[in-house]
Amino acid sequence: MKFEWRKQEKALYLPKAKPMELTVPKQNFYTISGKGDPNDSQFGEETAALYAMSYGIRMMPKNGTTPEGYFEYTVYPLEGIWTLSDEAVADGRAFDKSDLVYKIMIRQPDFVTEELALANIEKISKKKSNPNNQNVKFETIEDGKCVQMLHVGSYDDEFKSFEVMQHYCEEHQLSRTTFAHKEIYLSDPRKVAPEKMKTVLRYFVE
């Protein structure tokens, strides 16, 4: 039976369009850290590197290698942790996408060990040239206690959902542990109209 995160992990990836609390355990990811406007080509190339590595793991059995514990699965969605540069915060200047600092990532199944992940990076880098391949890392990340909700609409309208989440936190005596937040992209912006895009927004709280 094929493991599909949309079906088996709904609590993590398919919340409703209203705030909810959850605790997210440690998960393994391929990651790339960067800064600047995500509309620039650099961001697209970084995303492409992450997907190349992720599909490299997914397709291993078809390429002659079946890792221990391997199972059929759907590749996880792109995620990103976003914040602003220290300079932008210190200056208190108006929001500008060029000031964004991010870590984008794609989760990997539990059977993926560090040894397997790094060997895959080396193999894929030889097959698919991308200057960002050298920046891909394998990391274990624990989001911990969070408040999340589904945002439907343009990325530029996310502030409306953030206001709802902030109000929820205040009502339930929760405070954010960091200015950074996470986004999980359920829609492909190349195929879905902006007003219909679905994005999970997540605050880290205590």
From TrEMBL:
Protein name as catalogued: GyrI-like small molecule binding domain-containing protein
InterPro entries in UniProt: GyrI-like (IPR029442), GyrI-like_CCH_Lin2189-like (IPR008319), Reg_factor_effector_dom_sf (IPR011256)
SUPFAM superfamilies: Probable bacterial effector-binding domain (SSF55136)
Source species, domain of life: Bacteria
Domain GyrI-like small molecule binding: 19-199
